[in-house]
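Students often ask why inverse folding is considered easier than folding. One informal answer: many sequences map to the same fold, so there is more than one right answer. In these notes we will look at a single instance of the problem. The structure comes first.
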């Protein structure tokens, strides 16, 4: 395998700050040399800020690249790109040559800072490596390479995975038919949501429950329902680890209540079982106007039915979803579920699904709190073997009785007793409800930690996910990654979210206690901690997390800036519902001074068919700016009281407003106004702004078509189609081609319509 690396922007950095550039290169060389040696690589060349190395194994090369990037991403961050290909080479004493070297170099040039790009040949050698995760980008026509090369990004936690749209212009993409719909749409999935938690090394074996789950495979659904702390997730992960069935896993959160998001992640989990399953469904989900839910679900069921092998699909923490639409979709799936799939749901409360009907039909297996409680024998194994306490049978029985076999209570009690001489007195000292035991024992556990650990726990409790560099940024300390590993080894309620033990979370119960203590022990610091987290996420390319933490910090100005910056991406990915939640969390007065946010609110309403709200927001925007749609503005001299973050979006506000007015006019069948506004938008937009010119030209053509001017409509929609293709918007391009075929058919140009159809396939 051939690996190229280089430091992005190194020349510019040399011109600005030579000393800093040299320090960056020194760190790059230090990490590169040691990591390459560790993974049995052979360094062939250093050239300026770049390197060339080879490996006997593609797996070694990719593992080396992952470790390098994680090192480069630690402060001070070194923006390094890495590309890997495999193939024949000619190696002499002076140089390395061959087409494979050229491909590796081109793949590296496509990458972005913090990413690892690999060719399809490398990807093929990694298929059975569960520790290496990948995301398909697209097929590229690389310079001096005859056939297109499919490129993948390694998507392990901590690595940057760009939207394929960001690569536009780096080289010419290959014909779009080679890219699956998921890649075309540029969907980015959070890898940790799809990670199957590994069984804990010292977990108590529970064969009686595993056998119940195995017997339930004859039905459609296994429901594991109990309050927090009963080991639901641990049990299911243990079952999967010992099962011969492949499994997809989806860790749910509140944002998955959006049906389109839920189904997109459902397909992503399905693709962990069958790589390309559901690609057609993703195309439907990401279309400008998705079809009815039943149509999408029917397509999904057909995709599931095409999978040959039986498999499991787990929906973890289903209680976090409060959505009738999702409940209805899951009910539809259960009613028509192909026999290959067995659904598993873990939840703290029973979901709104047809459980009674399934119970009568023998389609449902249920494990509840009474089943999940530790038996006396399991409690003894946990306390004495897993936790190493060596308690007497009497003390074990007392603990088991007081906690009623509640696993979280037993674990907290075990942690509290470590180092105590008189454990019997401790066991007799507490009783009461689970909530009381939790609060009491959590206090005991915290008090027994060193000050450094206690401070770390409290400061990082504001995070939903824990990662060494992120925790370093929030706490201001170093070596957080090592401390997280120590916490896991000490059974201190941290749960790994990936198999490399880089991302973790706190057990939900423990996190609740920590957050409550943070408010009391660190008064006034929560906002500062959230702000640090927001800054880290922004610097590392995760704007949604950056926005959430900015809102939690009540730093509304920062949250508004980030919400403005992410609007084009959310609009392109049809995620306006999620975007509006952030917008609605901002003070109304602040939004009223931000024209880009008002425009986003207008388009969000229009996308949902709410014309009155869309019109009202546009009118509010016009009043704020003191201009009408189509009147140019100078971003260097905005009107008094107006604020914005994204200069480019502000500059093109008049054109975007005109496009929105064209959309409204067409919806009202005011075709003359629609044509006028669309032309105004096109007059204001530069020829190279393909992203904005496409929709404006499409609206112009549709209005002209409705007026009966087929020739003008054909010309305008052709322009729209060209612009959509130039920004690789395959969904809109397909719609544009469909419109053109209809126009050609209406004009009697059937052969031209047929040829266009063939080119569009």
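Output (designed amino acids):
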């Amino acid at each position: 395998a051939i690996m190229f690396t280089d430091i992005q922007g190194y020349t510019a950095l040399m011109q600005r700050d030579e000393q800093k550039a040299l320090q960056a290169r020194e760190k790059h060389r230090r990490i590169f040399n040691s990591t390459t040696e560790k993974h049995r690589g052979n360094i062939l060349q250093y050239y300026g800020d770049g390197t060339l190395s080879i490996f006997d194994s593609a797996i070694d090369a990719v593992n080396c690249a992952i470790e390098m990037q994680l090192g480069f991403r630690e402060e001070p961050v070194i923006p390094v790109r890495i590309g890997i290909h495999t193939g024949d080479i000619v190696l002499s004493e002076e140089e390395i040559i061959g087409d494979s070297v050229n491909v590796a170099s081109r793949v590296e040039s496509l990458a972005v800072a913090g990413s690892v790009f690999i060719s399809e040949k490398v990807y093929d050698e990694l298929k059975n490596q569960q520790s290496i995760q990948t995301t398909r980008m697209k097929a590229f026509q690389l310079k001096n390479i005859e056939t297109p090369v499919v490129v993948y990004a390694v998507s392990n936690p901590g690595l940057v995975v760009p939207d394929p749209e960001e690569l536009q212009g780096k080289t010419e993409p290959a014909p779009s038919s080679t890219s699956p719909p998921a890649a075309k749409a540029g969907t980015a999935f959070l890898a940790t949501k799809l990670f199957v938690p590994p069984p804990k090394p010292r977990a108590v074996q529970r064969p009686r429950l595993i056998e119940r789950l195995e017997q339930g495979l004859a039905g459609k659904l296994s429901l594991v329902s109990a309050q927090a702390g009963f080991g639901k997730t641990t049990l299911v992960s243990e079952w999967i680890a010992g099962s011969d069935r492949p499994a997809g896993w989806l860790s749910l959160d509140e944002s998955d209540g959006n049906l389109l998001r839920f189904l997109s992640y459902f397909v992503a989990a399905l693709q962990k079982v069958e790589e390309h399953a559901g690609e057609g469904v993703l195309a439907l989900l990401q279309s400008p106007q998705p079809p009815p839910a039943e149509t999408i679900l029917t397509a999904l069921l057909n995709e599931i039915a095409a999978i040959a092998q039986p498999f499991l699909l787990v929906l973890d923490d289903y209680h976090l979803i409060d959505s009738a639409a999702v409940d209805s979709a899951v009910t539809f799936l259960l009613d028509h579920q192909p026999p290959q799939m067995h659904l598993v749901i873990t939840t703290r409360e029973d979901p709104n699904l047809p459980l009674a009907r399934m119970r009568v039909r023998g389609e449902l297996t249920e494990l509840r709190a009474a089943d999940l409680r530790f038996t006396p024998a399991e409690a003894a194994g946990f306390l004495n073997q897993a936790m190493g306490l060596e308690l007497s049978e009497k003390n074990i029985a007392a603990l088991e009785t007081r906690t009623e076999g509640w696993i979280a209570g037993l674990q907290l009690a075990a942690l509290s007793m470590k180092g105590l001489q008189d454990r019997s007195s401790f066991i007799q000292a507490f009783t009461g409800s689970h909530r009381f035991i939790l609060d009491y024992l959590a206090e005991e556990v915290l008090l027994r930690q060193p000050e450094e650990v206690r401070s770390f726990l409290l400061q990082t409790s504001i995070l939903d996910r824990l990662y060494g560099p992120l925790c370093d940024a929030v706490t201001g300390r170093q070596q957080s990654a090592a401390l997280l590993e120590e916490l896991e080894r000490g059974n201190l309620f941290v749960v790994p979210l990936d198999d490399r033990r880089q991302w973790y979370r706190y057990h939900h119960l423990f996190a609740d206690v920590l957050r409550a203590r943070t408010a009391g022990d660190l008064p006034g610091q929560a906002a500062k901690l959230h702000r640090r987290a927001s800054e880290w996420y922004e610097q590392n390319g995760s704007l949604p997390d950056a926005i959430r933490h900015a809102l939690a910090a009540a730093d509304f100005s920062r949250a508004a800036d980030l919400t403005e910056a992410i609007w084009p991406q959310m609009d392109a990915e049809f995620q306006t519902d999620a975007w509006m939640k952030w917008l609605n969390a901002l003070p109304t007065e602040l939004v009223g001074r931000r024209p880009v946010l008002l425009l986003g609110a207008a388009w969000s309403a229009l996308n949902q068919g709410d014309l009155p709200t869309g019109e009202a927001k546009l009118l509010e925007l016009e009043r704020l700016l003191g201009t009408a749609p189509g009147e140019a503005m100078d971003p260097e001299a905005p009107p008094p009281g107006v604020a914005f973050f994204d200069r480019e979006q502000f500059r093109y506000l008049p054109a975007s407003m005109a496009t929105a007015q064209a959309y409204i006019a067409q919806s009202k069948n005011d075709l003359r106004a629609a044509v006028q506004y669309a032309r105004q938008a096109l007059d204001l937009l530069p020829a190279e702004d393909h992203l904005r010119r496409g929709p404006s030209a499409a609206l112009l053509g549709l209005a002209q078509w409705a007026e009966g001017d087929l020739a003008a409509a054909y010309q305008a929609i052709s322009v729209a189609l060209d612009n959509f293709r130039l920004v690789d918007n395959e969904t809109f391009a397909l719609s544009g081609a469909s419109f053109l075929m209809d126009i050609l058919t209406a004009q009697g140009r059937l052969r031209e319509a047929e040829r266009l159809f063939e080119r569009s396939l």
